[in-house]
Amino acid sequence: MPLNILRLKHVTVVTTKKNVKALRRETYTVDFIKKQIEEFNIGKRHLANMMGEDPETFTQEDIDRAIAYLFPSGLFEKRARPIMKHPEQIFPKQKAIQWGEDGRPFHYLFYTGKQSYYSLMHDAYGKILDIEKHKNQLQAKGLFSEKNKTIDLIGSRWLIKEELEEMLVEKLSDQDYRQFVRLMERLLQSGAAEEEFVQSFRRSVTVQSKKQPIEPVQRDAQGMAFSTSEGKRKSAKAEAVVYEHGSGRIKVNGIDYLLYFPVLQDREQLMFPFHFLDRLGKHDVTCTVSGGGRSAQAGAIRLAVARALCSFVTEEEVEWMRQAGLLTSDPRVRERKKPGQEGARRKFTWKKR
Amino acid sequence: MLKGVASLVSRVRKLDPGHLRLGTQAPQSLAAQLDNQVSFESPRAISCTNENDPAKHEEKHEGLHYNLPLQDVKTVFPHGLPPRYAMQMKTFNEACLMVRKPALELLHYLKNTNFAHPAIRYVLYGEKGTGKTLSLCHIIHFCAKQDWLILHIPDAHLWVKNCRDLLQSTYNKQRFDQPLEASVWLKNFKTTNERFLSQIKIQEKYVWNKRESIEKGSSLGEVVEQGITRVRNATDAVGIVLKELKRQSSLGIFRLLVAVDGVNALWGRTTLKREDKSPIAPEELALIHNLRKMVRNDWNGGAIVLTLSQTGSLFKPRNACLPQELLGKEGFDALDPFIPIQVANYSPKEFESCIQYYMENSWLQHEKAHTEEGKKELLFLSNGNPGQLERLCAYL
């Protein structure tokens, strides 16, 4: 259902009650947006010239890189840094004025309140009915083939409510959204005819799980196969060297791990990767660690050891380790103290007077 | 018949895992009979041995636990056992010690000592929790069985810290007395060495104070009594006992074993202070002074076995475990020459035996403790350290 084109505001100067509502929201007029787009394009060409690149083949990524280079910003919030994007992405999509000069709305479902949503539902249901009619016809003729071409749903997901709202430029409620999803699924069930239509409402889910950095496979020295890797936690950095054939001795900074970590909890952390892979007494480890506290050092060594073990272990087990959380570095860092508070979260004692 | 009884007993044990007495008493007698006949597959045989006499402990007994009769324990160790071990003893209702290499080595040396030569000093050292004190107890038990006179100081650190009252010594104005510790020690000494006290006669006259004195020729028992009753003179009594024993051991009437645990306390620092808050050096404590004289090897007719301990030591870093570090230069020079014996963590066989022992006494209640993986986990977490293993198993 195409949206109505934005009309010039000065046409609707007729001050009927229906137009007051439109005047309240700040609307970007068609002219304004067009001007912005022209300015953007000109600016793009200027930027390409500045960077010494070809203006014709200057993509959005190039623009981003150029801006980051010309205006380096130290702000932590990425959205606060300078950006130069197409006006369509910057200015929010707005609904055009939905009624004409005489006050009569263009869309037949205007008075439902959510015209695009209901028109979408209506269309989808119409398609379902069409498919069923087609099926009945085929069955009557006897040409109905049992093959159900099921559309592959793996690797894609339905639009989430926010995305649907953005697409329809209308606010939806949760029940509306659920109803929509049910209708789509029913459409899928009835037949594979409207694949394009359905796929326009699905987004792919990137399978990012398999992308584990493959660790350097064993290196040999003196005939002993071993592998090295690093790990970090809070502010402790550790580097571990895991030997493939050993008897389960671990040395930390040259000291036996029993003496370096007198606390049981730290030793349990060290034990976790080996215990998970059932290789408790089979490897020797020598590691160096610095920084952080007792617990942070234990966590850093654990991560380093798990990463080093990946090179001695099958792909499946690497995947298991990743799911167990052995290969993810802990992002938790000490939170900064804020002014006006005693600590990161603790406020000063509140006195009534 | 025996097999039937064995299966019945094992069934009974399976039914009542909580009844320790039933479990421990019955298989012991069984094992005694069975061991003589066939090597039966009773789990007791893996971790325990029947040989209760330390004198007969050989290398083949290494890693096995032997039972100490409770009666012996009361006489020989009134004060000598580490507190955790005493708790374990109370729980299991029996005292079992593991036979380990350092102890066997020491026993070998002791059996071959030449009593004409000056007493040799043996120093047991090692990481924290590896079993130095219990090895010492093993040696003491052996010597008790061999009828030696045992001079056992359970922890020398107790004499250099946390002392309530310090009196100025009557004997020597420079030194300080510790009546409480001395009297406690005298009581325990009496329990251990009852039979010797009447035999040994002192060879000098000692004057306690204006009214009391002790004549030459009276027995050592009287000195000890005097020390116990008159707490003020207890330290002096201890000094007299030590002096007499040293003098008379060379005569050959008895053999003397000096066993000191935590000997690094003798040469370290103390936490005690005088009234004017100035610190006291160990030499100024009468007990320590006498003990130092005892530990010097200018007498013969016995042996000196010492243990270093970081746990109770004062002002020493946690990872210090070598004799040089713990004794300091002074102590090392004073003890030099000595024979150092290192006590290490459990070997795999010893570890296995320890776990078996705990399992027989139903100490490990966790389901996974019986499996191979569980054992591997325990081995990893404790790294074979007996102290750590014991603390770990306490949670299971």
From TrEMBL, chain A:
Pfam families noted in UniProt: Ribosomal_S9
One GO term of the biological process aspect: translation
Superkingdom of this protein's organism: Eukaryota
Keyword set, alphabetical order: Mitochondrion, Ribonucleoprotein, Ribosomal protein, Transit peptide
Region ranges (Disordered): 329-353
Subcellular location: Mitochondrion
GO terms for MF: RNA binding; structural constituent of ribosome
InterPro entries named among the record's database cross-references: Ribosomal_Su5_D2-typ_SF (IPR020568), Ribosomal_uS9 (IPR000754), Ribosomal_uS9_bac/plastid (IPR023035), Ribosomal_uS9_CS (IPR020574), Ribsml_uS5_D2-typ_fold_subgr (IPR014721)
GO cellular component entries: mitochondrial inner membrane; mitochondrial small ribosomal subunit
UniProt keyword Metal-binding, yes or no: no
Stored PANTHER family: RIBOSOMAL PROTEIN S9, SMALL RIBOSOMAL SUBUNIT PROTEIN US9M
Family, per entry: Belongs to the universal ribosomal protein uS9 family.
UniProt name for this protein: Small ribosomal subunit protein uS9m
UniProtKB/TrEMBL annotation, chain B:
GO molecular function: structural constituent of ribosome
The keyword Ribonucleoprotein is annotated on this UniProt entry: yes
Main location: mitochondrion
Alphabetized InterPro entries for the sequence: P-loop_NTPase (IPR027417), Ribosomal_mS29 (IPR019368), Ribosomal_mS29_met (IPR008092)
Subcellular location: Mitochondrion
Family that this chain belongs to: Belongs to the mitochondrion-specific ribosomal protein mS29 family.
Protein name according to UniProt: Small ribosomal subunit protein mS29
